[in-house]
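Local shape tokens:
==================
===
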Amino acid sequence: MAALADRNFDDLAAKFARKIYSSQKGEVRLAVIWRDLEEWFAEAARPLQGAAAGPLRVLDIGGGLGQFSCRLAALGHCVTYNDLSTQMLALAQRSAEQAGCAANIDWRPGSYQPLVAALAERGERYDLILCHAVIEWLAEPQRLAAELAQLLAERGLLSLSYYNRHGWAYRNLLRGNFNLLDRPYRAEPGSLTPHHAFTQPQVAGWLNEQRLQLERSSGIRVFSDYAGERRGGLADPAAVVARELAQSSQEPYKWLGRYIHLLATPAD
């Protein structure tokens, strides 16, 4: 069997854009993560929407289609975008050009590891590091927290989302795929199912090893992915997003999210 490598989405960039971010799935993901970021920065007295405290230094690792990079750049923040896929980067740049914020983004294509190493060597520090739906595609996911922690400013924030092992298991239970739960997790090559699926203690352990303190957690797509019939509120896309936002931070629903979103800061 070939050695696992970090997933490059050059071959699936268009499919990824169509199936994830041009759909309700993507809308829910963006809504939950942005809500979490806005609430945390508001509590830290540094609103994302305002410039009173000055622009944030933002690093977007595996930035994909660039929705967060573009949104933050448009608000006046200083953004560095990175993605392994040149096709993803091209799509992100096109969106940023259409929004008029491409010139405000430092575009860094390629593997994140040499970029992070170079930034750390220069002593660069960031107020906000974004790393969404990346860790589950890495050959060595256990290294990510240590690599990113060294770039966080003293009061910086890491925004990390990961593919949830419990969400994967629950979906297969509902489908009757009991056999999949009796063997080690694995994804089909070439599919959009990630290399890895993680549990909360596993990811929290990696953060704790780097003295990163968990501030909050939310589930992404805690019910809509599991629904069979689109009736009642499920037939109304706006109602689905609103209810996903409402349930995403509530126990026990959030732990059934297909993805989990975590916010972590350097421990005092």
